[in-house]
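Lab notebook page, bench 4
Experiment: in silico fold of construct C2
Operator: M.H.
Input chain length: 370 residues
Purpose: comparison with the prior construct
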Amino acid sequence: MAPRRPTGAGAFPRAVEPPAPEKTDPASLYAALDLGTNSCRMLIAQPKGSQFHVVDSFSKSVQLGAGLEVSGRLSRGSMARTLHAMHICRKKLDKHGVARMRLVATEACRRARNGPEFLDAIHRDTGLRLTVITPEEEARLAVVSCAPLVSTRTEQLLVVDIGGGSTELVWIDLSSVPSLERPRAIMRLHAGFHPPESPFPAAKVVDWISVPLGVATLKDQFRDVTDDAARFALMSWYFEEKLADFSPYAAEQTREGFQIIGTSGTVTTVAASHLGLKRYDRTKVDGLRMTSDQIDRVIRDYLALGPEGRRNDPRIGRDRHSLIMSGAAILQALMRIWPTDRLSVADRGLREGLLYAQMSADGVLEDGPF
């Protein structure tokens, strides 16, 4: 006898409705937009404990500073790309009903003669009003974003933010701050590098500098040098010369109790290459610690690959291969001056700093460990 078919076999399965996603209260949302020399990035987030939960994000390479070194102006093509990105950001902000936001522009708009005119055009076309922030605020926000990565054993901290048009370095003395309070002391710098008197132990900003050279502008300075290795060496030494006025430059620094935190696409790309990632994974990169020797090996590997090899290397990515060597030149100069066994990789930066600063000012972040 043929086996009997079970009742209901072949029938369409009954649809099971997934639970509706929990709606986010727009009143709890904050947005931060960073229009840089190379990229336009935005985060929409809500406070969660002592940190925040990202609800939506946007990132696009718009190359706003393309040609700026030569002409002193933003080009039509770069402005058109950026304006398209701004319309996408506007739609995301409207979709989530975000009311609290900070939208900022940095080095390219600071330097371009037609920067103010372009920001007015963005406002007319999208309704978004961007503010050009000072190099000091840019540096301060980068520092604040890295607070969760500060080790409780760190007494001297150097935060480095390698951007498209500029590089910010901030040296902070944490030796007088109790070890468990050090990350929170960094967070309190959102009020300024020299905040008013406070009952809390304070992080002391020893010195900071904004060098008007980033991955895009440094590359443009040496675009006429055809030899790959020679161009890299010239970029690295040229960047080091620009640090001569940075006061901790000549100080002898022991590796014990010293930490560098690097926040930039350059640092995260080097970290991804060190890990051999063919597909970028933020969870593996953010917070990773690397030694000077490990970083040097990755950079030597990049040089051995040459321009064509870097273009086809999945660890670098098609959108970064043309800028990675100028960023690596900056990183190598820093490692030459301050060798360390504790460079922490930060996949975070200005956007996160903007969010932390807004939420801290509103008092919506809870006290507690990061």
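Observations: Residues 76-96 form the longest helix (21 residues). Residues 1-21 have pLDDT under 50 and may be disordered.
Next step: discuss at group meeting.
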